[in-house]
Amino acid sequence: xxxxxxxxPDGGLPRLxxxxxxxxxxxxxxxxxxxxxxxxxxxxxxEEAYEVSDAIEREAWGELKGELGDLLFQTVFHAQMASERxxxxxxxxxxxxxxxxxxxxxxxxxxxSRDKSAAQQTLDWEKIKAEERAAKAQKGVLxxxxxxxxxxxxxxxxxxxxxxxxxxxxGAGEVLDKIREETEExxxxxDRLGPEEIEEEFGDLLFVMANLxxxxxxxPEKALRxxxxxxxxxxNRIEEKLKAMDKGPExxxxxxMDRLWDEAKAEERKxx
Length: 272
Hints:
Radius of gyration: 25 Å
CATH class of the largest domain: Mainly Alpha
Mean pLDDT: 90
Distance between the termini: 59 Å
Order of helices and strands: HHHHHHHHHHHHH
Structural class: mainly alpha
């Protein structure tokens, strides 16, 4: 069945699972795939998730199918390695996810009423997740917030957990006051202390900035991606303007590039 399924263009998920098994075959598989383990593949899994997000943000719908396929392949890869160790397989992963979704949606799959707001459903969801954490002996409020998350995203999740039990500033004003305090402490560390203290104070400032994002209802990851895109777009414009003068950035200086930056910013703000 192996070869016929592998070359079947309509083989779907069984085909993908068979391909993964063949890639990991210790005698006939791919040397690179055989050498991998959970830790070595994890960074690729994170990268593929970001590429899915990037395609959605750019509304690149033609690319999204492929990016989702890449992300699915990461799940298949991890499941294959787990199967080889006798831990679980892909079907177990699917079953666990199905059980979780059914349990977390009693208003869809059970006898609870659907006649409630999205906000109430969110509260119910969090209650169910708290019960799941308790069943896993995760008793602390912050237990279960994944260590492998991007630091900015994890900061927001930690703060959201703490806020649920009342450990939060009342509003954005108090957070801004804290930002000013943390900024002063960072300046003091820069002037009087060493690299470790500077790094610690810088981390504190970033953590409070993430909290400000929460209070302003801003997704900090999305906001920073937007700032990255804007910087890239404007710096590219600087390079275009320098090229028109038969120059490159290495032939320019800060004063000139700063002037071209202001021009690029003004161009963006002109009405279409």
